Amino acid sequence: MIPCPISEQTEVYEVVPEANRRVIDSLDYFIVENTRSARRFLSRAGVARPISELEFVELNEHTTSAADIERMIRPLEEGRSAGVISEAGLPGVADPGAQAVEAAHRRGIRVVPLVGPSSIMMALMASGQNGQSFAFNGYLPVKEPERSRAVRAFEKRALSERQSQIFIEAPYRNVKLLESMLGVLSPSTKLTVACDITSPSESIATMRVEQWRKSPMPDIQKRPTIFILGI
What we know:
Elements: H1 12-15, H2 20-25, E1 29-32, H3 35-44, E2 55-58, H4 66-77, E3 83-85, H5 98-106, H6 119-127, E4 134-139, H7 146-161, E5 164-168, H8 174-184, E6 190-195, E7 203-208, H9 209-214, E8 225-230
Parallel strand pairs: 1-2, 1-3, 4-5
Antiparallel strand pairs: 5-8, 6-7, 6-8
């Protein structure tokens, strides 16, 4: 499981341990979310072999057949090693690569996670929210009133369980989501908005909703952002 940088503006080994290079250099077969971005990452990582000699298979939202995943795993059953690469951050976390991992476990194939950046965990680290109990909830509903109902439900859970509630949105819908949250959340609820993590433009702020409402809307449109609710 090979992590890659979250931001294109950071060098690979600024955020990924140099030790990962030895593992990457040992592989010639990769299960990836997107071949183009995986090739670009490996090139930036200074992979030892020519990119043209590497084999890539894609596992993403368009992979709908269990038979396709079986074919991806078959070389591993025959003794070959594979690297799993997401578009950004940690493979298998909020990422379809988890399907390949599940298939590997069913066959008793060893799965090795390498160290690397996770925007989800880095946002929690820098938020000041509860790091003892937290939940990552992925994406909220796109449409209203379902989205507002979901926001209220997560707020209720944060309050009743004292548990940080973490979620993400497609970058082009960030502003709409934040507007919805500020419209329905209790003034005393804490909200973290963590944007462009590891990038030079990184911005992480935690305030009560009443403070967010009095502040200028942060510039998060089309920028990768993590949202956290807490008490």
